[in-house]
Amino acid sequence: MTTETGRRVRRPGRGTGSLLEVAVGEFITRGYDATSMEDLSRAAGITKSSFYHHFSGKEALLRAALERALDRLFAILDEDGARTGSPLARLRHIVREQVEVLVDELPYVTLLLRVRGNTESERWALERRRAFDAQIATLVGEAVDAGEVRAGVEPTLAARLLSGLVNSVVEWVRPGRSSSSLPEDVTRVAFEGILPAAAP
Amino acid sequence: MTTETGRRVRRPGRGTGSLLEVAVGEFITRGYDATSMEDLSRAAGITKSSFYHHFSGKEALLRAALERALDRLFAILDEDGARTGSPLARLRHIVREQVEVLVDELPYVTLLLRVRGNTESERWALERRRAFDAQIATLVGEAVDAGEVRAGVEPTLAARLLSGLVNSVVEWVRPGRSSSSLPEDVTRVAFEGILPAAAP
DNA sequence: GTCTATAAATCGATAGAC
DNA sequence: GTCTATCGATTTATAGAC
Questions:
Q1: How many of the other CB atoms lie within 10 Å of CB of A41?
Q2: Type and span of the H or E element at B124
Q3: How far apart are CA A131 and CA A74, in angstroms?
Q4: C-beta atoms surrounding A53 within 10 Å
Q5: Which nucleotide is nearest to B36 if distance is taken from CA to C1'?
Q6: Could you report the per-residue pLDDT of B82-113, keeping only the tens digit for each?
């Protein structure tokens, strides 16, 4: 892509980092499979061959993006708030931080949540994601066993719906346009009910 | 695809209906963009050309599948339980029936929920889906105005998280393997909280 | 309604010059 | 680090015989 004066147009800085950023953007809007290397290089303002000089191919780009999202998510589990306190308190911390990461790394996490496991990189990412969800499910079970929550439904179902609710944020949140109270709001809804009956 | 005796293998009956069923299955497992007409015809046990005799192309198949899912969802809004009673009661009815449809039409609804609006058919489906969600959001607002629920968060956020929670069922439910109480369980979790604090 | 054969375009990826 | 040129495979879709 060139301007009318013939100068090249590349959006961010240089380096492989900005190429990854551009690629993830294309993957999100066109879908990974529907995005060609031609699309990527056009969006980056270089030729296809130049793009191959920085990344070995499409899947390497996907893998790098998924790794970034997963690393951010797993980092939450290492924080103090996720390791100390009651199971319920740790759960609330993790949920709040998870929303924070969703907003902060929106395109990367969005890509991760769309992965279905059709390539080697996707299966790798899917396994790590399931390990993350499994840790949350364990914590839900501990909160129930500790008598911290009313035992309404199966802990397994609760954990799945909790993840589903939290992850659905990527479907409508807009980068840079999210309220600073969103993580706390989502956490409150998740634990106190979306529409709790009014006290009589 | 042939058996060792040379007979053709086609899974269900004949007709365009079974071809659509086969195609949707392939779309789900491979992803729509990654599925070729060759893949579809191989899965159906006929040649590519024969497939084109029944459907004008890939997008016609997608459109037919999305229409089926949307018709089932909108039919819920016409039921008595969705039109009479308090806003909260109507909401609960819709959510329960929505889970029922998700399980009943799992592959079709799964496809619908993956649509991102990159083709004309996808944009059409996305608009109808948003209209469905908008009706639910309106109902949530009415329930809040009527004082039926504790006004905890913005009704808009509540409606989005409600849809997110409900739709996430397609991520893990397995056809024919879902508990008959699932719709009621999901509804209870959605309205009373995923992990409501235990009464002191 | 099914088939073989093929057109026309695009795909991911590479060779090799500068 | 960027480019032009191209390879071989695959893609959607059609022509036309049976």
A1: 20
A2: helix B120-145
A3: 10
A4: 10
A5: D11
A6: 999 999 999 999 999 999 999 999 999 999 99
Tell me the per-residue pLDDT of B148-172, one tens digit each, with 9 for 90 and over: 998 778 999 999 999 999 999 999 9
The verdict on B157 touching A (C-beta cutoff 8 Å) is yes
Q: Which nucleotide is nearest to A50 (CA to C1')?
A: D2
Measure the CA–CA gap between B67 and A148, rounded to whole angstroms: 44
SS3 A86: coil
pLDDT along chain B (200 residues), means of 10: 43 77 98 98 98 98 98 98 98 98 98 97 98 98 93 91 98 94 96 82
The pLDDT tens digits for A170-198 are 999 998 899 999 999 999 999 988 888 88
What three-state secondary structure class fits A8?
Answer: strand
Length of chain A: 200
Would you mind telling me the total number of residues written for chain B in this entry? 200
**Integer Cα distance of A55 and A19 in angstroms:** 9
Out of A143, A148, A168, the one facing B161 most closely (by C-beta) is: A168
Residue B13 is predicted with a pLDDT of 53
**pTM across the whole model:** 0.94
Cα–Cα distance, A44 to A21 (Å, whole number) = 9
State the alpha helices, DSSP H only, in chain A: 15-30, 37-44, 48-54, 58-77, 80-83, 87-104, 106-114, 120-145, 155-167, 182-192
Orientation angle between helical segments A106-114 and A15-30, nearest 10 degrees: 50
Whether A31 and chain B come into contact, CB under 8 Å, resolves to: yes
